[in-house]
Amino acid sequence: MKHETISKEHRAFLQKSRKKTGIVNAVRLGLLLLLLGLWELVTALNWADPFLVSSPSRIAKTIASLYREGTLFYHIGITLSETLIGFFAAILSGVLIALLLWWSETLRRILEPYIVVLNALPKIALGPLIIIWCGTGSRAIVFMTILVTVILVILHMLSAFLSADEGKVLLLKSMGANKAHILAKLVIPSSLPAFVSMLKVAVGMSWIGSIMGEYIVSRAGLGYLIVYGGQVFKLDLVMAATVILCFLAALMYFLVALLEKKLVKNKES
Amino acid sequence: MKEILAFDNVRLTYHTRQGEVTALKELTFSLGEGEFAAMIGPSGCGKSTILSLAAGLIKPSAGSVTLGGSIGYMLQRDELFPWRTIEKNLYLPLEVQKKNTPARRARALELAEQYGLSGFLKSYPSQLSGGMRQRAALIRTLVMEPDILLLDEPFSALDYQTRLLVAADVSRIIRSEKKAALLITHDISEAISLADRILVLTARPARLLASHETDFLSSDPLKRREEPRFSGWFETLWKELDP
Ligand SMILES: Nc1ncnc2c1ncn2[C@@H]1O[C@H](COP(=O)(O)OP(=O)(O)OP(=O)(O)O)[C@@H](O)[C@H]1O
Ligand SMILES: [Mg+2]
Q: What is the pTM assigned to this prediction?
């Protein structure tokens, strides 16, 4: 809605709602600082053993020393590339498979039970198999990432493709449209919002996949740092890697959310 | 009058895993060039099926359907694509039929201009009122240059007031473009006010129960509703539908 002139009442409303957003943001930040401060205080006063719970300053120091040793970006780079390769490969193959399943009802009916079982299966159970097939390098981890993510992509996109409006299909057919037309003019554009919301979930899944993969096989990466830190009881390292992970996952999520804002605007019916 | 659509002894049976349903049986009727006919019948009797047959979307199980021209289909909901502007929606049939030429697009814009849509070309469907959207849907149908319009309860999603106005509007446009039309409706008074011929169907499986040529002085639906014979027609059809 566009208004040439904003009424006084509306301006007051906008001001109020802006103020509210401001308060929410301030309290959010305050809460974070408070928690960090408490954590630091509790460990500095030795009420809790920093050896067991680490502390913000120790985490910062650990990250700094990783940086000085030159391994910080090495580990980040490895995990990030595994995650991203797995993510994009899963999106690409998942969308293609969903398209095939949309295209052929017979294929869909044949493959349905396989997909259901694969979806229900905890993918980590395939760990040993993956090691045997792909070795213990990055390939195994990328494969695990794809495996964890791709089923979700398939199911999500297939349901979006299949929910294309019946009336619009009928309309297109009455214009003489074939299946390719229906796909290009209706099914794909109407699935765009579902595609973007799927991306958001897939981001989370691919991090699960890559870290899980690193737990099982890796010799480098953030997941490796966490496992290694746990084994030698270096909780600072575990926490530092976790914090970096949080940061990266959030960053990727926000990038997708930004993409969503760009793609899905002004287009709701 | 030359026939543009003819159903001859048509039967249609739907087969599904749940069983079979015979929607039409021994259905025979025809429509002339430029003729505006309405079809009424009990709900679920097979009216939409008749349009699907006429449009060639399904084949009859028995009998024959002869179509002497191209069709344009208009549905209960406007089915405008929400991610396209009104202008792009008008081009949709051209894109599908590979007729997306500058001349055809110019013709589409001309129709939009002629029927008061030019101010909305850059708008998205969600920004238009229900009546405007239905008008846009009609223009999109006309862009295909159809010889016969198939209208499946195109006004039933609108509220009563809008419905009367949009029906009058659509009827005026169809008549000025001299198109044949087959209108399906649940609403007896809508059928009487719009059509020159009214086909009454039986309950499923649908057959033709009666065919009436109406005898109104005006072709304007709103004026027809004021003519004295309107209520006479209403009564006749009411009795036929509810024996
Ligand atoms: N694709 C289909 N498969 C199986 N049965 C169908 C199919 N389409 C319609 N039918 C059945 O055929 C019968 C006639 O359907 P149709 O939609 O033609 O009726 P209608 O007169 O348009 O109904 P309404 O008044 O609700 O619009 C109904 O009993 C319906 O259940
Ligand atoms: Mg119907």
A: 0.84
